[in-house]
Amino acid sequence: MKKILSIVALFVATAAMAEPEEVLTGINSLEFVPAEFTVNNKTVAYAKQDDNIIIYDDNFNQKAVIKPIVQTPVNGSCQVEATVKITGVKMQSSYSNGRYSYWDSEAMQQKEIQASSLTDMVKKLSARETSYTFVPFTDVNGLPSCYSYSTQYGTAYNSSQFYMYDKYMTAYPTSYYTLEDGYVCRRNTSYTIDFDASTAEWKEIPGTRTTYSSGDEINSFEYMNENSQSDNSFSISQTLFNNDDSWEYVTAEYGEPVVKVYEGSYYKTTDNGDGTVTLKTNANIYSEKKSLQVKNDKGMVVMTLPAGYIHTLIKYYNKYYLDMYKQTPSSSSSKNGNTLIRLDKTATSSPSKGIRGDVNGDGVVNMTDANEVVNMYLGK
Description:
Elements: H1 2-16, E1 30-33, E2 44-49, E3 52-56, E4 62-66, E5 74-99, E6 101-104, E7 109-112, H2 118-128, E8 132-138, E9 144-150, H3 165-168, E10 175-180, E11 183-195, E12 203-204, E13 210-213, E14 221-225, E15 229-234, E16 236-237, E17 248-254, E18 258-261, E19 268-271, E20 276-286, E21 289-296, E22 300-306, E23 308-316, E24 319-326, E25 337-342, E26 350-351
Parallel strand pairs: 14-23
Antiparallel strand pairs: 1-2, 2-3, 3-4, 5-11, 5-12, 5-13, 5-20, 6-7, 8-9, 9-10, 10-11, 14-15, 16-17, 17-21, 18-20, 19-20, 21-22, 22-26, 23-24, 24-25
């Protein structure tokens, strides 16, 4: 009996000494390529680390490293200005100061003026203010109105009563009379310079640009088939887009940064005194997405897809489809929306930069583009 107890104790002591083995360190997270998208039909583990993709074998030994070629979109803001012609002066708003009243010395009280029409209002005001001329017009609120000016100082208009009369030489009254509910009322108003900015040629103001860049990531997508939906998300494959043993990934292609001006809100308008006004406003700077490109691990373009984002890879009756959100250029944003694209594995690869022999897509053909070395022995 004692012999058996000693054996059990030895087993427990041995088990307690076992330590877990650290296989990988410094890895943020692992992802897995489904077996059906690899040439060996085996699930492959990989990790994204320091802008690289590290591929592992069955025992988590590093098997290969992919250095994705991605564009870096530029975003930011700046200030812009443009000079346009003044088209006139526009009444911005008007507000009532109440009914017009005068002191009736005979009745010893304040009296208000009633009128039946614009003509009647002008007639009654002219009878009371004999040194002024009253000119009828319709104000911004559509009310029958009239303004007055005096000629006693040798000028047609008193500039203090009209908006920038010395520049525009046209009567834009800062105070006038309106006919409201049968009574003559006083109103005050404000004006703005009127201009057409639709044809403005905007120029960036030096020293106002602020931009930031962030490396665009490769596109990951969920996988779903007609039998069940998998939560597995992956971003590289060997046999999804073609049938070779290279690894492919999807990344965005961007155009040159553009400046987008949002007209209508100007933080400064300057009347130049020559019939023009200088406008200043803020603008956005951004890189517009032109397309999605499928690239292989040599930096060559395998396939070009519409600009946007891939949500899901769908397998349906042995055919593969990409469910994606198509993002057309801003000029035709009404065409944005979800679309389903069937994949065609017959696509061929081409250098991502469009230069023959530029395998790694860095825009230069040199020894770094070599992917095969052949030794040749020449005879004497």
